């Protein structure tokens, strides 16, 4: 028996579209809600047949709004939180380019670099990896878990499962409402590329 985990990045936000570092309190706007509702219609078939489903969500408002739009009664899981952007929270990338270009360049290239008073990508990988390991140790045999979260968390999960170097994070593109499937068995976690996971129009 296997645990199936679907990780779904939340619908787009106004901050994403304006290249602004996320604020956990930002809800989905009308465009994001429309995207989530359209995704729900496409995704419904992908979860059919699951014997039991547990829904989880990041604490962020945009993730909780996405889960609601998908009709999920989701429990908040702290391990699914987005990167902590520290002092860059709510700042436009264009402004950081002017104010702190070296720090931004380091953060984009070095997974150990972090925004001031923020979280590095290496820290995100460690956090998400610990969450996945804890999930695997839970009594989840023959259960499907649907988790609404963030692009950074999907990147971190893939790196953890594939034992890839954290520096590979710049090579993984995750769009809003992108979906990946992971499965846990006696062999550990494995990534299952599947046509059903590609639910973009």
Automatic annotation (TrEMBL):
Pfam families given in the database record: His_Phos_1
UniProt xrefs under Gene3D superfamilies: Phosphoglycerate mutase-like (3.40.50.1240)
SMART domains named in the record: PGAM
Protein name in the entry: Histidine phosphatase family protein
Organism: Paraburkholderia edwinii
